[in-house]
Design goal:
With 400 residues, the protein is an alpha+beta fold. It is built from 13 helices and 21 strands. It folds into two domains: 246 residues, FAD/NAD(P)-binding domain, CATH 3.50.50.60; 140 residues, Elongation Factor Tu (Ef-tu), domain 3, CATH 2.40.30. The structure holds flavin-adenine dinucleotide (FAD).
Length: 400
């Protein structure tokens, strides 16, 4: 066996690619990993539980210039095949609410372990680490892989599986984009996604640390869930999840009483006033919202001083309060940084790759998989599904 495949990056997509590439037995496969161990990010996924995939995964949950690019993977190696693949390696899975799939053991380490065991058991896979690839060039039919420390290796085929720029603490620093650019591939603008949102801070700062359940609307999408006020803006699962839809959206809105419509809310407030006319406004919402949230709503509605009695609230004032409770707008100023993001929005233009093979249309025998491509998914197992699928397809094709 003299032919060789180099997999650049030992993360979710790279490890799957290596296992798939080795299956034909025609190639020796080397995984080049910059860190001291493979799969560091996998360990951090799903709060250490690894939300491996989602049984509802389809184009609705993916973004990029062409989300339909995932349809090739959907035809070739998708959710069922992924679950079968991991079950074959020993992972028993559990499907939870919203179709999220976790290992039954609730341990992300189990997912990484079975991949490592498989690799250890496979004679034609070798892991080289730490080996931080700086460049990949092609001379004639062979690729030359050069590390930052000057070491060089060669291969017949190369799979770029370096991940994106999100969460660089786990090894993904964005070098993959430079490697693909050097081969003439275009990279779309990159931005952190699945990340906390920064807003104007005058209101949120005062509510720092308070959590509430709300219907969050952003970029035309709505999601119900917990919202956390922070010093810089808004966090919590619903906000985090909707951050993938950010685009040029300038406002995020909270409906903090979504079970009531505006009219019902109006009646409820009138009732509160009737029952406690002499309560001062600073305590008026105690029992309905966190005290500080209630005070902030009244201030946002321009109602002051809060030492006034509830009974002094006029019709227009009550209407303004209801409007804010149902649609509390926060002006977006940005997102938190790459360090806080779970995924990268943007990446290598997918039209330049085969959707069923992940092979470059520009350079023969060059493949890309995972987050380095311009595909990002919502929160809920969609990003790992993309990594497993694209890695598996790239590996299978390279191994032919
Ligand atoms: C905290 C956190 C939690 C997450 N939870 C989930 C979840 O529960 N479910 C879900 O679906 N998604 C989740 N994600 C997203 C998911 O982990 C990623 O989308 C996925 O891991 C991407 O796979 P990848 O193989 O493309 O890249 P990565 O997993 O990032 O792997 C890339 C690998 O390449 C290596 N590398 C990078 N550059 C080089 C180089 N120059 N030379 C050699 N090696 C290099 C890196 O060290 C790394 O090991 C989470 C992400 C984070 C940060």
């Amino acid at each position: 066996m003299t032919n060789s495949i180099a997999v650049i990056g030992g993360g979710a997509s790279g490890l799957t690619a290596a296992i798939a590439a080795a299956r034909s037995g025609k190639y020796s496969v080397t995984v080049y990993e910059s860190g001291g161990r493979v799969g560091r990010k996998i360990l951090a996924t799903g709060n250490g539980r690894c939300n491996m995939t989602n049984i509802n995964a389809d184009t609705r949950f993916y973004h990029g210039q062409n989300p339909n690019f995932i349809l090739g993977a959907k035809r070739g190696f998708w959710v069922k095949e992924t679950i079968d693949f991991f079950e074959e390696l020993g992972v028993v899975v559990n499907v939870e609410e919203d179709g999220k799939v976790y290992p039954y053991s609730n341990q992300a380490s189990a997912v990484l372990d079975v991949l490592r065991f498989k690799i250890d058991d496979t004679d034609n896979i070798r892991i080289m680490l730490p080996f931080e690839v700086k460049t990949v060039t092609k001379t004639g039919e062979r690729f030359v892989i050069t590390a930052f420390d000057g070491r060089q290796e060669t291969a017949d085929k190369v799979i770029i599986a370096t991940g994106g720029k999100a969460a660089p603490a786990f090894g993904s620093k964005g070098v993959g984009y430079d490697i693909l650019k050097a081969f003439g591939h275009k990279i779309t603008p990159l931005a952190p996604s699945l990340v906390q949102i920064k807003t104007e801070t005058d209101v949120v700062k005062k509510l720092k640390g308070i959590k509430l359940d709300a219907d969050v609307t952003l970029g035309g999408e709505r999601e119900y869930g917990e919202v956390l006020f922070t010093e810089y803006g808004l966090s919590g699962p619903a906000v985090f999840s909707l951050s993938s839809r950010l685009g040029n959206t300038k406002t995020v809105s909270l409906d903090i009483m979504s079970r009531y419509d505006k009219d019902e809310l109006y009646v409820k407030i009138l009732d509160r006033i009737a029952k406690r006319p002499k309560i001062t406004l600073d305590n008026f919402f105690v029992g309905m919202f966190h005290k500080r949230v209630g005070q902030a709503i009244l201030k946002c509605a321009g109602i002051e001083p809060l030492s006034r009695y509830a009974v002094t609230l006029g019709e227009k004032e009550i209407a303004r309060v209801c409007a804010i409770i149902k649609k509390w707008d926060f002006r977006i100023t940005g997102t938190m940084s790459w360090n806080n993001a779970q995924v990268t929005k943007g990446g290598a233009v997918t039209d330049e790759f085969g959707p069923e093979t992940m092979e470059s249309k520009k350079v023969k025998n060059l493949y890309a998989a995972g987050e380095v491509l311009d595909i990002d998914g919502d929160c809920g197992g969609y990003n790992l599904q993309w990594a497993w699928s694209s890695g598996y397809l790239a590996g299978t094709e390279a191994g032919k």
